[in-house]
Amino acid sequence: MAETPAPAALPATPPLWRRIWLPVVVFALLALVPFVWSERFILGLVSRAMIMAIGALSLDLILGYGALVSFGHAAFLGIGAYAVAILFSHDIVDASIAFPVAILAGALFALVTGAISLKTRGVYFIMITLAFGQMAYFTATSLSAYGGDDGLRMFHRSEVFGTRILANDTAFYFVVLGTLVLCFLLLKAIVGSRFGRVLRGAKENERRMRALGFDPFRYRLAAYVIAGAVCALSGALFANLGMFVAPAYMTWQRSGEFIAMVVLGGMGTLIGPIIGGIGVTLVEEWLAALTQHWKVIFGPMVILVAIFARGGVVKLLERGGGK
């Protein structure tokens, strides 16, 4: 008589240093940046890195915990950015209105596209998300009333209850940092909840989760909507950073960058994508300053990290004795 296969075990509880000390160290170092380097360029660069980290963090929810490889994730970034800029062009400049609209727009787009995409799996899911991402990109290029290919410029950053506090680069920096911390804590709570356990369980053994009475589709769709909303929030911040939006924000190459950030930092760790998002952004900026052919150098670097640091930077730290 054949033995009944053992149930798929959920991943073990991460070590204490990864759950508490590593995030504390990362966020503390980010908080110290304005006190060490007050130059506008440095503040803008690290702000951009943190915004990209928010986008990578949102992708980790569906990629690291749901095994959903999306090549259209950058569409949410662009939707959030365009929501803020379009409202700005109609004299709706307060963040208390623009940011919730951006989050809602990202969530609605994720709900509609996710309901279709999640009917498929594997390479078919990848292709459908890529198609939806390209649809969003070409829609943005066709918006001639809002700049089309040339993009849309904002004359100043969003106001906060009638004040222009975000115009101060240091204040904006800490708003971005605070948003990053809040998003991290939110997704950490979601992953640690029953919802997160079901999502991870469906990743490990979908048939068993169905037998237990859970519908993986509903949980994956909810996770997809949450990821889209969080990424749209990063887009709203991105629009304010440069006071400019463009269809290029939505390209599949940008989605590929998000995947690289998650993979290099460490999938399914939450703190890993933050490290990956900041690291990739800073390395790209450094290489671009050295040569215009920086991608020729960056590509092999990614390959080497993928080969010798399997599981990302966080797993590399674990193997180095961080347990």
From TrEMBL:
Coiled coil spans: none
Keyword field: Cell membrane, Membrane, Transmembrane, Transmembrane helix
GO molecular function (one): branched-chain amino acid transmembrane transporter activity
Subcellular location: Cell membrane
UniProt name for this protein: Branched-chain amino acid ABC transporter permease
Pfam families registered for this protein in UniProt: BPD_transp_2
Residue intervals passing through the bilayer: 20-37, 74-90, 97-118, 124-149, 170-191, 221-246, 258-282, 294-317
GO cellular component, one term: plasma membrane
Record bears the keyword Iron: no
Membrane topology: Multi-pass membrane protein
